[in-house]
Amino acid sequence: MGSTAHHGAEGVGRRDLIKRSAALGLVAAPGMGLLSACASGGGDGDSGEGGTKGKTSKDNPFGAEKGSKLDVVVFKGGYGDDYARAWEADFGRKLGITSTHTGTQEITGKLQPRFNAGNPPDLVDDSGAQQIKVDVLYKNGQLLDLSEVLDAPSVDDPAKKVRDTLIPGTLDPGMQEGKIVALNYIYTVWGLWYSGKLFKEKGWEEPKTWADFLAVCKDAKSQGIGGLAHQGKYPYYINVAIMDLIAKKGGLDAMKAIDNLDPKAFVGSEAAQDAIEAIYEVVEKGYLMPGTNGLTHTESQTRWNQYKAAFITSGSWLENEQLKQTPTDFDMKFLPMPLLPGSKLPFEAIRAGSGEPFIIPAKAKNLPAAKEFMRHMLSKEWSTLFAKQANSLTILKDGVDPGVRLRPGTQSTVEASKAAGAHTFRYLYTEWYGEMGTAIEAASNELMSKRIQPKEWLKRCQAAVDKQAKDPASKKNHRD
Fold it and tell me: For the range 459-465, what are the long-range contacts, defined as Cβ-Cβ under 8 Å and sequence gap of 24 or more?
């Protein structure tokens, strides 16, 4: 997620895609509940669009007005914000609309007062450790329903709707109660990462089973190298490993049980028990990189770049986030989570999907331009601009022009995605239930520090699920 924080998604994290989470438990201020903006925002041409409505045309379906201004706020994390500046410059050339650009990691700090005052930006990349939770914004009527953008003609092929040009399933994480209110723009894969150079030097092979993974960690420890590094101050990251192991061990049913708030999502789940015991074995055997529990994401990742650990957990924003810290011959590689015995999904299966939520506030002053900007984000030209600037892929099908050279880590995620084929999975509880996600991360933080055991971790996670299930609104979210 961010360059000094991505979680996003999140970074996940980054980014999840992604979303860096919740480790800080930042939620919207109570005053937000007093706001009365409707979730659909003002209609075209009314005062809700600040008098910025221009003439509509085939090339300008929302009537974005030449000479108007667009207020853009971008999470400056693992992907940086150069890509957004490139977009804004192109938008100015093509439509004559200038942009006010803010790149920051303090999304909540800078934007909470503006949302509360009814004066939000026009477009926001709402990610990072200080993300304002999408579910909180939605519940307070602060988000535009993006269906109008998604049903508009594609910039590249006006015969197609924008939504028909996207990788299937990538809109799902932006859904609240059946409406798409956030566009998770970046196609992210999550898993383990290693240095091809270090593995070659040590004679290590890419582990496909958990036993082989532990063997590499053991050998690394014997040579004074940490086995697994994680971003201890942001337990979002270790949950990448935990939740991947649950899904691969128990299959999609184990994943959906968590998203659907099943009374046996954790306690009573063999997959969850086996996964957390496997992770705890890494802790108990001393295979963690020394000090990793007390480090931020960039601190842990930089030590990993210094060959102080064999593996680290992250999403595919990692390469761009660590550009300045990565030796030129490091040869960054992505690795699907190795398999526990009896796993229902194959080794090639990966958590993949969209991260980095972009939102249009319902009370944006220049809604026509914001919608048009988002439509252009989903063009091949802007998708390629993003890939060049941020070393990552977008949710647009074949969204990078042929001939664009990708860095080693990004290329390895492309290859992993092809190898996975249909065997991809993606949790949605992180988007649907921010408070529950925070509670699960807090339990993981305690476990990695050996303050609780696996049995207690399962109990705490199940308690978080059970608490969320009591919220009547939860019944509006369900995965089949």
Answer: 459/266, 459/267, 461/265, 461/266, 461/272, 462/263, 462/265, 462/266, 462/267, 463/439, 464/435, 464/436, 464/439, 464/440, 465/258, 465/261, 465/262, 465/263, 465/265, 465/266, 465/436
Q: Are strands 226-229 and 309-315 parallel, antiparallel or unpaired?
A: parallel
Give the separation between CA 294 and CA 266, rounded to whole angstroms.
Answer: 27
SS3 198: helix
CB 27 within 8 A of CB 434: yes
Q: Would you say 190 and 350 are in contact if contact means Cβ atoms under 8 Å apart?
A: yes
How many Å apart are CA 371 and CA 377, to the nearest integer? Answer: 10
DSSP of 93-157, one letter per residue?
HHH--EEEEEEES-HHHHHHHHHHTT---SEEE--STTPPPHHHHHHTT-B--THHHHTSBPSS-
Rounded distance between C-alpha atoms, residue 134 and residue 11, angstroms = 14
User: Which sign does the torsion angle of CA 3, 442, 282, 251 carry?
Assistant: negative
Residue 360, φ and ψ in degrees, nearest 5 = -115, 115
pTM, 2 dp: 0.76
Burial status of residue 106 (CB atoms within 10 A of its CB: 0-12, 13-18, 19 or more): middle
**Where do we find the tokens 């960054």?**
332
CB 354 within 8 A of CB 341: no
C-alpha R_g of the chain: 22
Task: Name the packing angle between helices 82-95 and 367-377 (round to 10°).
Answer: 120
Contacts of 57 (CB under 8 A, 6+ apart): none
Fill in the DSSP letter of residue 301: H
DSSP state of 415: H
Query: What are 204-221's pLDDT values in tens digits?
Result: 999 999 999 999 999 999
pLDDT band at 476 (very low <50, low <70, confident <90, very high): confident
DSSP letter for each residue of 370-403: HHHHHHHHTSHHHHHHHHHHHS-EESBTT-S-TT
Secondary structure class of 436 (helix, strand, coil): helix
Q: For 106-113, what is the mean pLDDT?
A: 96
pLDDT digits (tens, 9 = 90+) for 403-426: 888 889 988 998 898 899 889 999
Q: What is the pLDDT of residue 48?
A: 42
In this structure, are residues 356 and 127 in contact, taking their beta carbons and an 8 Å threshold? Answer: yes
Q: Round to whole Å and give the CA distance between 43 and 166.
A: 26
**Residues whose CB is less than 8 angstroms from the CB of residue 451 and which lie 6 or more positions away in sequence, other chains included:** none
Percent of the chain with pLDDT over 70: 89
Distances in whole angstroms, Cα of residue 226 to Cα of each of 221, 312, 442:
6, 10, 23
Q: Which residues contact 129 (CB under 8 A, 6 or more apart)?
A: 1, 2, 5, 7, 11, 20, 21, 22, 23, 24, 26, 105, 234
| d(C-alpha 301, C-alpha 308), whole Å | 10
